[in-house]
TrEMBL record:
InterPro entries named in the record: PsdUridine_s_RsuA/RluB/E/F_cat (IPR042092), PsdUridine_synth_cat_dom_sf (IPR020103), PsdUridine_synth_RsuA/RluA (IPR006145), PsdUridine_synth_RsuA/RluB/E/F (IPR000748), PsdUridine_synth_RsuA/RluB_CS (IPR018496), RsuA_PseudoU_synthase (IPR050343), S4_RNA-bd (IPR002942), S4_RNA-bd_sf (IPR036986)
MF-aspect GO terms: RNA binding; rRNA pseudouridine synthase activity
Organism whose genome encodes this protein: Aerococcus viridans
GO cellular component: cytosol
Keywords (A to Z) from UniProt: Isomerase, RNA-binding
Protein known as: Pseudouridine synthase
GO process annotations (BP): enzyme-directed rRNA pseudouridine synthesis
Family: Belongs to the pseudouridine synthase RsuA family.
Residues covered by the RNA-binding S4 domain: 13-40
Stored SUPFAM superfamilies: Alpha-L RNA-binding motif (SSF55174), Pseudouridine synthase (SSF55120)
Gene3D superfamilies: Alpha-L RNA-binding motif (3.30.70.1560), Pseudouridine synthase I, catalytic domain, N-terminal subdomain (3.30.70.580), RNA-binding S4 domain (3.10.290.10)
Source organism superkingdom: Bacteria
Amino acid sequence: MLLGQLIMDARQVTRKECKRLLKDGHVTVDGQVVTQFATVVDPSWQEITVDQVVIDRHFGHTYYLVHKPKGYLSANKDQQYPTVIDLIQPADNPGDLAITGRLDRDAHGLVFVTNNGQLHYIFQQPKFDIPKIYRVSVNGLIDEKMVAQFQAGVIFEDGTICKAARLEIISASPQSSTGLVTISEGRRHQVKKMFLACGVKVTDLYRQAIGDLRIDGLAEGGYRQLNEAEIQSLKSIFLLYNRRKES
């Protein structure tokens, strides 16, 4: 959110009064005086003060990790199937949540849900190299040749070249294999298409992690807020994005 808008909401001041507070050096973000109304901030993980009074975190955005079961759509609502947002209790849903890093209906695992539009955008951009880790089962052999194909960049039938990806073999046989895949892109059905381009079909897709976000210990169908370490991880990504915008 914009710093100026946050101050107006939190301090109940007019736009003119807000700009004066900024111009006169009354506002700090993580200890540094900031004077620009349009600076992008989030009090969920940044300490923002006006006249040395900290703006409460509840003015920030909402962040949840959701353990998506199979059969659920990565959508806010649907007339035919249950959705990821249906898993979140109404009291915990501010009404403007968006799903960052969608999974197909037949896939399961980690989904990140937030109403932070800037962060949602960042997580969709390959240039930030945010790794996504999947445990994948296929109906054929995963071998060292396939590992090399992933490392070189899998090429789809339409000529699309994927960024280099990591494929680790967990188990392998001519009938079925399981591997761990790490990618930093977010193309539609990407992991399934990568294996299909290598001659095998995905039979199970489970996302374990997005960056430093994991759902270890979270029951299927459950959700939780981020812990402090995860908030700090998102903060570092967010600050990197702002530095790149300014450079």
